[in-house]
Design brief:
By secondary structure, this protein is of the alpha/beta class. Helix content is 44%, strand content 14%. The model has no long low-confidence stretch (mean pLDDT 95).
Length: 251
């Protein structure tokens, strides 16, 4: 039920953090994975890690917020693999400033990277996903549930991810495509390392509120991604699943 061979998956931002952990989970379940990112050194390292245990992975350098680059990317992946069954929209960034200090350019950078890229990639993937019935997984955030005064653009983009997920799930169900979102909690990544440095007392508050008593690890997201990518979730669509150690259920 959870076996992904011989399917092909594409993971944006798959060369590090949560994206790489999800790519590893998909490879371990038997999928061939196209890893997309902008940093060539990180891409090479990611593919080496993914193929070390015999998995199949290939790197693609692209800016997924650029429409022309996205079209070329999906054309190339289709030519190289002959199919696409799973898309994980994971590319993301954050600029932590209160809204009154945020420039329009900074706002656009976050929205383009986090939300517009998901729209562009989903649209480009649609004709490939509908061929066999596919899976689309958007990586959101708990900030789609809670406000974050120090990350207004990020919060807006991730709220948009949840609504985009619902719209695509409704629109593409007849094509046999399931569309769902994962909402990571506080996960120990390069991005959140910066947050702990920039937001006083953040680490202590998070551990105190999380029933699991710890920050999440990127690999904590892999199982949920494999479930949503597999036949086990064929009647699951339009959902947004928190993976947060219980943080979001606390009062």
């Amino acid at each position: 039920m959870f076996q992904l061979a011989p399917k092909t998956a594409l993971v944006t931002g798959g060369n590090g953090g949560i994206g790489l952990a999800i790519a590893q989970g998909l490879v371990d379940a038997g999928a061939r994975v196209a890893v997309v990112g902008r940093n060539p050194d990180k891409l090479r390292a990611a593919v080496e890690a993914l193929t070390r245990s015999g998995g199949q992975a290939q790197a693609y350098q692209a800016d997924v917020s650029d429409e022309t680059a996205v079209v070329a990317l999906f054309d190339q992946v289709a030519a190289d693999f002959g199919r696409l069954d799973i898309l994980v929209n994971n590319a993301g960034t954050n600029i932590r400033k209160p809204v009154q200090d945020l420039s329009l350019a900074e706002w656009n950078t976050v929205l383009d990277t986090n939300l517009t890229s998901a729209f562009l990639c989903s649209r480009a993937a649609y004709p490939l996903l509908r061929q066999r019935g596919g899976k689309l997984i958007n990586i959101g955030s708990m900030t789609s549930i809670f406000g974050a005064s120090f990350a207004p653009a990020y919060s807006a983009s991730k709220g948009g991810i949840v609504q985009l997920t619902r719209a695509l799930a409704t629109g593409w169900a007849a094509d046999g495509i399931q569309v769902n979102a994962i909402l990571p909690g506080w996960i120990d990544t390069e991005l959140t390392l910066n947050a702990r440095a920039q937001v006083a007392g953040l680490d202590e508050r998070i551990v105190a509120r999380t029933p699991a008593g710890r920050w999440g690890r990127p690999e904590d997201l892999a199982g949920t991604a494999v479930f949503l990518a597999s036949a086990a979730s064929d009647f699951v669509t339009g959902t947004a699943i928190p993976v947060d150690g219980g943080y979001s259920v606390q009062a």
